[in-house]
């Protein structure tokens, strides 16, 4: 994806998670907003790695969603372009280098 497309997909993901978290974990949203709405961006090597991170987050009770593209521009319809995790009251462990084995 080009940079603009990636940015748009990340915006979709942020808004989707924010809406879900307002309903499911409002205390986490309040804390996230109070602390300046921090965001962390990770790059994964494969779609499977992204799926695994979302599964870990959901298992920990953290709001997590994929964004599937409509397929009108750069990628095929239904492609999982990005995932968003949180805000949440729990944490998950990720490797510092996503390509590290």
UniProtKB/TrEMBL annotation:
InterPro entries: Pep_tRNA_hydro_II_dom_sf, PTH2. The keyword Lyase does not apply. It catalyses: an N-acyl-L-alpha-aminoacyl-tRNA + H2O = an N-acyl-L-amino acid + a tRNA + H(+). Keywords: Hydrolase. One of its GO terms (molecular function) is peptidyl-tRNA hydrolase activity. Its EC number is 3.1.1.29. Gene3D superfamilies: Bit1. It is an enzyme of class 3 (hydrolase). Pfam families: PTH2. GO terms for cellular component: cytosol. Belongs to the PTH2 family. This is peptidyl-tRNA hydrolase. It comes from Rozella allomycis (strain CSF55).
